[in-house]
Design goal:
The chain has 10 helices and 10 strands. The chain is α/β, with parallel strands linked by helices.
Length: 251
């Protein structure tokens, strides 16, 4: 994958594989190209060169760079969160596409047909399931904006999971969290990995989170990939040490 903005090469010939039921962390210093990569994966940007292939378990294959952003979510089943929290009032909105299909674009809903009622009940049940998993079921009727910051972070992930994604892209989910909240986040992501056949792509600066839960790390430096492997491999990679810590000039 290569992405250029005029004369700036933000992503420079980067390739890697992220697997289902694994947490793949993309790390690097500020300006390394991590969010640009996410924006290409989710359709906000179109790459200058390269392909982004998503394989479903049923054999379906999607070329994400050729799809519009909303179709990447609806058809390819890729969901994401953002560095800055963006919350709607509740989790039902995450299931809008599915409910619109079930209502035949409002006709079945207006007539209160049984097929729509069943779809609506499944949506309610799914919302309750994820609220319970993030310990917010008792606040189901509260406005999202009234929740503490850490709860809002987990709610964003729960909302994304209500779309039943194949790939979940999380952009700095631990930003601003205290140690207790970071640990709760870790447990939530491990639960998703182990129980929902979802691959997780994670951008994160908190190395306690990254090293504690990641199966696979990709390290970017000024748009180029400098390391790719297990946490243990990356931790001991001299290229990563140089990029993060620097070296003496005579070295």
């Amino acid at each position: 994958l290569t992405t250029r903005f005029g004369g700036l090469v933000a992503i420079d010939d980067v390739s890697f594989t992220a697997l289902r039921n694994e947490i793949t962390a993309i790390i690097g210093t500020n300006g390394a190209g991590k969010t640009t990569l996410f924006n290409c994966l989710t359709g906000f940007y179109k790459p200058s060169e390269g392909a982004i292939k998503l394989h479903h378990r049923d054999g379906a294959e999607f070329l994400l760079e050729r799809m519009e952003d909303f179709k990447i979510t609806k058809k390819a089943k890729v969901a994401r969160t953002f560095q800055n929290i963006r919350l709607f009032p509740g989790l039902m909105v995450a299931q809008h596409n599915r409910l619109m299909d079930a209502s035949f674009f409002t006709i079945a809903g207006m007539l209160s047909l049984g097929s729509f009622q069943r779809a609506e009940q499944r949506a309610v049940d799914r919302a309750k399931y994820w609220l319970e998993k993030i310990n917010l079921l008792d606040r189901a009727d509260d406005p999202a904006a009234d929740l503490p910051y850490g709860d809002q972070r987990r709610l964003e992930i729960a909302r994304a999971m209500c779309t039943k994604p194949v790939m979940l892209c999380l952009d700095e989910p631990a930003a601003g969290l205290n140690p207790r909240e970071s640990e709760e986040l870790n447990q939530l992501l491990l639960y998703i990995r182990d129980n929902h056949e979802t691959g997780i792509l994670l951008i994160e600066h908190d190395m306690n989170v990254v090293m504690g839960i990641s199966d696979h790390l990709v390290v970017l430096d000024y748009g180029r990939k400098i390391s790719d492997g297990t946490p243990e491999h990356v931790r001991n990679d001299e290229a990563v040490i140089r990029a993060y810590l620097g070296v003496e000039e005579d070295e």
